[in-house]
Amino acid sequence: MTLFILVVLIAIIGYFIFKLYSHDNTTFYQLTGYSYFDVLMNKSVRTSYQLIKELEHVQGTKKVMVNLQLPVHNEVQTIDALLLHESGIYVMNMKKKSGWINGREQSIEWIELLHKNQKQVFNNPIHETKRLIHTLKDQLPEVDGMLFETMVVFANDCSFQQIEIQSSNVEVLKIAELKKWATTIEGKRLSDTEIENLYATLETFMHGKNPTIRSKTVTATN
Fold it and tell me: Coil, strand, or helix at residue 191?
């Protein structure tokens, strides 16, 4: 019995050492500083990690930028994630909700239905994202406005009850759906050089590990 327990303990320790080593070699850790235990223990960090992991499935030339903080007058607006891809520029607004989500593209507010018929109202995330795109365009005045795509990405904890979207350049989905979404994007509207130049232009606005801001910076090239 003692030998069995010892073998189990060695296996557990070996597993965690492997996971720690593997995590320390990920782009997520190298650019954010968040450890494997941060991912395990902090839900916000874990959500950001899951988002970046899913974006790795996107094929083609790409770079991913997270926690992009843009100055607007005396304030700062944060883009949770930005995918610079050969098919376009995808601006992602992350929402960490856990209830049933209801919303229309044109509505001012959306509704999250919770347990025991409770509900919470929150600002239309599509409108929020479009405002972020407008701010981003100010930093990229020479970029064709048709390249920008609006994406609202919810945590996997929620469920969509009724979502109505009319625009072809707007996506509302959960993190778990990103892998399937990645198979639908196509076309080459940005060259490798243009993607590199965009990244270089925006790199100064990225922020690393910050206890008050939970979305972090990651780059990825395929």
Answer: coil
